[in-house]
Specification:
Heat Shock Protein 90; Beta-Lactamase
Length: 368
Amino acid sequence: MDEAIGFLESELDRAVAAFGQAAPGDNVVPIETARSQATLRERERRFRELLDALPAAIYTTDAAGRITYYNDAAAVLWGHRPRLGTSEWCGSWKLYWPDGTPLPHDQCPMAVALKENRAVRGMEAAAERPDGTRVPFIPYPTPIHDETGKLIGAVNMLVDITDRKRAEDQQALLVRELHHRVKNTLATVQAIMGSTARTVDNIEDFKTALLGRIQSLSKTHLLLADEQRAVKFEDILRSELDAFDDGSKKRVVFSGPEVPLISQIAVSLGMAIHELTTNAAKYGALSVFGGKVEVTWSVTIDATRRRLAFDWLESGGPPVAQPLKPGFGSRLLSFVLPGQIQAKSEIDYAPTGIRVHCELPLPADVPA
């Protein structure tokens, strides 16, 4: 940018020098005067063509700050065409600092450059158009001098940084989302540790159970990372149950539509499916040959929102009896999920196999 401003400044200096050579009162013959004037006009024409062709917003002022020229890119950035010789300092309808504070025209970077007779760098501002839209930009105001060093005006380049600001806002949003997820994950890990400690009798069982639950949490987060914004309910099921499928497609059976889930719901359901799978592998249908787990689900739409309902059915396993005390899985389904995702669960310890029915509300719109 500084090189471009320097080039524009040198072109203006040449034009000023040519004008000085052709000034009235010089001891030159008329033909030389005509040639100098023609040279000056040619330089001005080439200079304006150069400025008009540039994609960056360029404008010039006289020493008093009155706008003497602007190119089409400047008019687009400003959203209107200011009057030459009347509008001062900057052609913007209104000006603001990056924090949204109003910026008076006579205090803008171009005004500072002219009043203090120095180039201004490292500043940002925003131009508000007549339609109310704002364009953030970086200005490069540079004073212009004649051959004697007298200040005669300034040239300014306004670089639109809308895309950069949009990228910065997106990055800030992602950082906030990351902080939010990390906070939620740590809270979940803390809850897992507390609940696990209450349901085991020794340190080895605690270690085994805790590692399995942390790994389940990690699997769900990996799915969320791969899908970027949403993860399918069936993918959560497969991440836990595919390892128990013997290839016959009869030991683990899924049936239901495609249902994308937001991160909060996916993490909570991932933990619940992990607990059901772990229990089935240790004590239920997946602990013996010939056992079967069938998961069916559906989505219904009522007057206000969508709801996901799924059923976990085990069969072919050892006889089931009501446990003497609730384990982590039943605590998760009965007490944790209702608070986290407003889920309602029913657990039936039928002798032929555990049956779980769960329903929960879904957001109205989930990105696929």
